[in-house]
Write a structure and sequence with these properties.
Layout lengths: L5 H7 L5 E5 L6 E2 L2 E2 L3 H15 L3 E5 L16 H11 L4 E3 L5 H8 L6 E4 L6 H5 L2 H8 L4 E4 L10 H5 L6 E4 L1 H14 L5 E5 L4 H14 L2 E4 L3 H8 L14 H14 L2 E3 L4 E4 L7 E4 L7 E5 L1 H13 L2 E5 L12 H12 L3 E5 L1 H10 L7 E3 L3 H7 L5 H4 L6
Parallel strand pairs: 1-4, 1-7, 4-6, 5-6, 7-8, 9-10, 9-15, 10-11, 15-16, 16-17
Antiparallel strand pairs: 2-3, 12-13, 12-14
Helix pairs in contact: 2-3, 9-11, 10-11, 12-13, 13-14
Bound molecules: adenosine-5'-diphosphate and magnesium ion (MG).
Adenosine-5'-diphosphate binds next to β14 and α14.
């Protein structure tokens, strides 16, 4: 199948066609209410273009990790309501994504109508990419649009399995916009500065490896920094170190030297007795029994200076346990520095975006990527199954 964009699909015509749209409506919920509708609003343009062109639009998404079981707390019903408000029109909802009920709901759609189906992951077949499930989903529609970049690194039924069973497949506007912004990071203007943080080296090993050789400066923070410090034989106290990744950290440090880039590690730390509110202090060497919970102010300054000189910045992963206010200063300082820099800046990752929003600098960052894992894989140059299914590659 040749690669299509939403615009070419619309040019070919969608009037009266049943179009299955894989959106990313995986929003944070709080007591059955949508807590942040950013992803819902981001999904609107593609849906509006389709309804305006007279398509019968069938929207599917996952919400959370119900593990193949019907979990009422993870129902998309409240999202249908919020999506209706964002679109300014009624969105029908069906409490199953396949089967007779879904078939009846689709049969009732008039041209320009919109239907949201229940959480795909209430069926194990979604994440298993089960052929029967994929076929049942695909049979609801004629054409397919993928607008969910954040799940395109997963070969799930709704991202890959359905594609062969639908007549035409296209990339949605949100997904295309994401690729355009990530392109500027894949072919960056130099200096190219990367900031990587978060919990584990093991989560981001591939990204660390790829970005070490591509970035002019790679600033490492968060818990993963301590595995690197251990590799250098520095004291790490009770910090989260992944002993099985110390060798990898060694190799990455050596690769950075060979590539002629700079890999910066924290030179000072905020340490606490436990990863919870309580006593803490700033140190240059982590004492026994204390754990690193944030980069120190001197480190934040150094990372900030690297950002100030950059032409391109990519940031994923908080610099510390930013959910606890006292351990969030390093992450906030980096967010400010990324926003203040004249560089093109891309920030990706659920927690990283939460940190950016909490700091109130989101509108001064060039692009807030909807992908976490997908963004990291794309920047490594890996083939993303959901994109490959549309005939696109990194
Ligand atoms: P993202 O969602 O942006 O990709 P991650 O999920 O990889 O980011 O990492 C975020 C998590 O890392 C946060 O929950 C944060 O508390 C944790 N974290 C950051 N620094 C530390 C640290 N020093 N010790 C323990 N956890 C940390
Ligand atoms: Mg996260």
């Amino acid at each position: 199948m040749r690669a299509r964009d939403l615009s070419s699909l619309l040019a070919e015509g969608v009037q009266g066609r049943r179009v299955l749209v894989r959106s990313d409506l995986n929003v944070p919920m709080h007591d059955g209410v949508v807590a942040d509708d950013a992803r819902i609003r981001a999904s609107v343009p593609t849906l509006l273009r389709l309804t305006t062109a007279g398509a019968r639009v069938i929207v599917v998404s996952h919400l959370g990790r119900p593990g193949g079981e019907r979990r009422p707390a993870l129902s998309l019903a409240p999202v249908a309501q919020a999506l209706g408000e964002a679109l300014g029109r009624k969105v029908a909802f069906c409490s199953d994504c396949i089967g007779p009920e879904a078939e009846a709901a689709v049969a009732g759609l008039a041209e320009g109508d919109l239907l949201l189906l229940e959480n795909l992951r209430f069926h194990a077949g979604e994440t298993n990419n089960d052929a029967h499930f994929a076929r049942a989903l695909a049979d609801l529609a004629d054409d397919y649009v993928n607008d969910a970049f954040g799940t395109s690194h997963r070969a799930h039924a709704s991202t890959t399995g359905v594609v062969p069973w639908l007549e035409r497949a296209a990339a949605g506007d949100l997904l295309l916009g994401e690729l355009e912004h990530l392109e500027t990071v894949l072919a960056p203007e130099h200096p190219f500065v990367c900031l990587l943080g978060g919990a584990k080296v093991s989560d981001k090993l591939g990204a660390l490896e790829a970005l070490t050789t591509r970035a002019d400066v790679l600033c490492v923070g968060g818990a993963m920094a301590y595995t690197f410090l251990r590799a250098q034989g520095r004291p790490t106290g009770a910090s989260l170190v992944e002993p099985s990744r110390v060798e990898d950290a060694h190799r990455i440090l050596a690769a950075a030297v060979r590539a002629g880039g700079q890999l910066l590690l924290p030179v000072d730390h905020v340490v606490a007795e436990r990863p919870a509110p309580g006593p803490y202090r700033t140190v240059r060497e982590i004492p026994d029994g204390w754990m690193g919970v944030d980069i120190g102010p001197q480190t934040a300054r150094a990372y900030g200076e690297a950002c100030a000189r950059a032409r391109t910045i990519f940031w994923n992963g908080p610099m510390g346990i930013f959910e606890i206010d006292a351990f969030g200063a390093g992450t906030r300082a980096v967010a400010e520095a990324v926003a203040d820099s004249p560089a093109r800046s891309v920030v990706g990752g659920g927690d990283s975006l939460a940190a950016v929003r909490a700091t109130g600098v989101g509108d001064r960052i060039t692009h807030l990527s909807t992908g976490g894992g997908a963004t990291l894989e794309y920047l490594q140059g890996l083939e993303l199954p959901g994109l490959a299914a549309l005939g696109r590659r990194a």
